[in-house]
């Protein structure tokens, strides 16, 4: 007699036909085994993996191949690194909506957990992580390098990749000395001295049109400006002042309106920078060999001294002459270009208010061997590369901070 036996164990199906025992004439025994993979689900991602120019107001979503079990979904089912937001679930789609808009020109990584399952308990084979990059700021002058020359009235614009000249135009600032952009890149500001008085010029970034200009008093020599964290305040140095002055302007409208003068800076203040977190306003007192730091958030001010002897420009004796400053991306370290004698960049920890290091910049110039050191500086977004200008040497030095080279 023939008999059929069916054994089902997990996903292995075993079918056997067994012949009778003994010497009967039934067919010989045969065995057939079939292995079937466990069912799983898939997901379609948005924005797609590797996507670029993604709008900053985008939501992030994953649509599964079958309807999800609501009890398997929680706030960890779909996340975006460094972004807070809310997760919603409708049928087979998970959607993560950021609390605000994403940053421009930024790469984000999203992660889809493998814990979510469909109504039959099927899951993804494993968690999925993918990255996408948001669009550039439409008002950001991306790919452009703005160059000033105190020898004429022009602003030169170069392609930052090819270094080809794109455009040039005249500015009302006869001797343009410094340029900086607002944090939203909608505007930029140029300062300098026009014969016997100083000027601040405000431009629209999108088309380089002049919006406003402000003539400061004849005794004021503006050498640098810094934009406040909310893009509504402009801080301007005065290189002529025996005791450094920082002038404040309201820039919330298209014009510039003088507010007041702060007297906390050192002698002959030449450069000023705001830390990326908006807390510290750092100015370089060339004539007093000190930095002056204003803690904007805590209404506190304190000096950082490069020369313990507190020598003064007006006594004719200086050892350092801080000329330019740069603040790192973590708002902790300040790099100070010392123009006089030392050829050094000195490094301060502004959080702990201490001098921690110095970096030698090998420059020389037969015109004035005592005043050829580093001047203005700029920090690269990688937070490891410092660009340093030397005035009399007429060079641009590049310093790798990790190796001090």
Write the topology of this structure.
Blueprint lengths: L2 E7 L2 E7 L11 E6 L7 E4 L4 E4 L5 E5 L13 E3 L4 E6 L2 E6 L8 E6 L15 E7 L9 E5 L5 E6 L5 E6 L4 E7 L5 E8 L2 E8 L4 E7 L9 E3 L5 E6 L6 E6 L6 E6 L6 E6 L5 E6 L4 E6 L4 E6 L16 E6 L5 E6 L5 E6 L4 E7 L13 E6 L5 E6 L4 E6 L5
Parallel strand pairs: 5-11
Antiparallel strand pairs: 1-2, 2-3, 4-6, 6-9, 7-10, 8-9, 10-11, 12-13, 13-14, 15-16, 16-17, 17-18, 19-20, 20-21, 21-22, 23-24, 24-25, 25-26, 27-28, 28-29, 29-30, 31-32, 32-33
In a nutshell, what does this entry contain?
By secondary structure, this protein is mostly beta strands. It is built from no helices and 33 strands. Helices cover 0% and strands 48% of the residues.
Keyphrases for this structure?
405 residues, four-stranded antiparallel β-sheet, elongated, disordered N terminus
Please explain how this structure is put together:
With 405 residues, this protein is mostly beta strands. Helix content is 0%, strand content 48%. The protein is built from no helices and 33 strands. A 4-stranded antiparallel beta sheet has the order 4-6-9-8, with no helix packed on it. A 4-stranded mixed beta sheet has the order 5-11-10-7, with no helix packed on it. It has a 4-stranded antiparallel beta sheet with strand order 15-16-17-18, with no helix packed on it. Strand 20 (233-238) and strand 21 form a beta hairpin. The radius of gyration is 33 Å and the shape is elongated. The termini are far apart.
């Amino acid at each position: 007699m023939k008999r059929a036996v069916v054994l089902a164990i997990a996903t292995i199906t075993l079918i056997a036909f067994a012949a009778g025992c003994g010497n009967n004439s039934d067919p010989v025994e045969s065995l057939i085994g079939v292995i079937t993979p466990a069912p799983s689900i898939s997901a379609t991602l948005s924005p797609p993996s590797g996507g670029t120019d993604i709008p900053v107001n985008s939501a992030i979503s994953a649509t599964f191949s079958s309807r999800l079990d609501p009890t398997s979904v929680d706030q960890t089912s779909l996340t975006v690194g460094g972004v807070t937001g809310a997760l919603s679930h409708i049928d087979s789609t998970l959607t993560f909506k950021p609390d605000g808009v994403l940053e421009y020109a930024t790469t984000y990584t999203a992660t889809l957990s493998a814990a979510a399952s469909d109504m039959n308990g099927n899951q993804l084979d494993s968690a999925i992580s993918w990255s996408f990059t948001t669009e550039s700021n439409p008002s950001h002058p991306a790919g452009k390098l703005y160059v000033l020359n105190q020898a004429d009235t022009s602003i030169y614009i170069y392609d930052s990749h090819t270094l080809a000249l794109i455009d040039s135009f005249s500015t009302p600032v006869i001797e343009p000395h410094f340029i900086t952009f607002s944090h939203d890149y909608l505007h930029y500001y140029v300062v300098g001295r026009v014969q016997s008085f100083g000027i601040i010029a405000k431009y629209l970034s999108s088309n380089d049109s002049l919006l406003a200009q402000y003539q400061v008093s004849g005794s004021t020599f503006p050498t640098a400006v810094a934009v406040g964290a909310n893009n509504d305040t402009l801080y301007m140095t005065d290189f002529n002042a025996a005791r450094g002055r920082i002038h404040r302007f309201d820039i919330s409208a298209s014009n510039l309106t003088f507010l007041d003068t702060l007297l906390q800076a050192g002698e002959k203040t030449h450069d000023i920078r705001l830390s990326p977190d908006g807390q510290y306003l750092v100015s370089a007192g060339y004539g007093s060999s000190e930095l002056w730091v204003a803690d904007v958030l805590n209404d506190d001010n304190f000096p950082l001294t490069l020369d313990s002897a507190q020598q003064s420009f007006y006594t004719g004796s200086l050892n350092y002459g801080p000329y330019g400053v740069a603040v790192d991306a973590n708002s902790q370290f300040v790099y100070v270009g010392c123009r006089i004698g030392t050829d050094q960049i000195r490094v301060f920890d502004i959080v702990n208010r201490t001098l921690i290091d110095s970096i030698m910049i090998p420059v020389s110039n037969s015109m004035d061997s005592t005043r050829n050191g580093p001047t203005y500086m700029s920090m690269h977004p990688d937070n490891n590369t410092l660009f340093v200008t030397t005035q009399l040497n007429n060079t641009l030095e590049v310093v790798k901070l990790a190796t001090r080279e």
